Amino acid sequence: MGDVQHFAGPPDWLWYILFYFFLAGLSGGSYVLATLLRLRDAPGDEPMARIGYYIAFPPMLIAPLLLTLDLGQPMRFWHMLVNTTPGHLGVNFKYWTPMSVGIWALTVFAAITTVSFAAALVRDGKLRIPLVVRLDGRVLNVAGSLFGLFVAGYTGVLLSVSNQPVWSDTFALGGLFLASGLAGSAALMLLLARYRPEARPSAPMLSVSERLYSLLELALIVVFAVTLIVAGTQEIVFGLPWSLLWVVVLAGLVPGLYGLATERLSAGPAVAVRYSVVLPLLVLAGVLALRAAIIFSVQV
């Protein structure tokens, strides 16, 4: 029955796709968290919000490049956006395919992150283009957050609608990748706050959010495992050597879960601990390991 259900061969994705998924999660998650901080409208949140907008931009330069390289024919990337069929020249948008919707969402989100990145530079006195500040209002930030949520989570949905064992045996991948991306983004923003002292008043709120995203990620990992057990494919992704990557995934959840157990939803000394370099990097390693285990275990 499994061979009948999973009749297509593995896609043979390389490390390009791994880092594309990783960067998309961090970019989308950072933009969402930055916008939530700005919408909170607390006096001291703007510096941390700008950190989020700074983080969201570079991955949107690199991620499309990685996706293009993985196509094997990089020079034909624009065919995913433009229909070049004789007699049918125009926009190539197919709302019924997650790949086409994802490419367009990535394109729009990259444009929005560019505006918000430039506006952050203007607000920090590093650039003089006042127009981008007028564009970077709440409407753009909210729209960018919706696209950010999509970009961070759609990679998991893309796997779920495939015909591969594990990927198509669960409905949890979209939510799992989104929760993981948000937890990693919060950790990265807390890490970079070390170098922007005026952003530290926002650290307690961001730390609380990281704890909750870590708890949500753990819950979705459990759902992921249960759905695979029901399908009988759990050994593919949780067996050796992939179980070693899952150790890293769970280790990356420890800072957030420890903070939730000891500090609950209040900010305290645990926030200061997160100013260290090691713990945020451990969280980010867990984000990368999660995607590596899920992507590569199916292709062996």
TrEMBL record:
Keywords: Cell membrane, Membrane, Transmembrane, Transmembrane helix
InterPro entries: Electron_transfer_protein (IPR052049), NrfD-like (IPR005614)
Membrane spanning residue stretches: 13-39, 51-69, 101-122, 142-159, 171-192, 212-231, 243-261, 273-298
Source organism superkingdom: Bacteria
A UniProt-annotated Pfam family: NrfD
One term under GO cellular component: plasma membrane
Keyword Transmembrane helix recorded: yes
Record flagged with keyword NAD: no
Name of the protein in its database record: Formate-dependent nitrite reductase membrane component NrfD
Organism from which the protein derives: Nonomuraea rubra
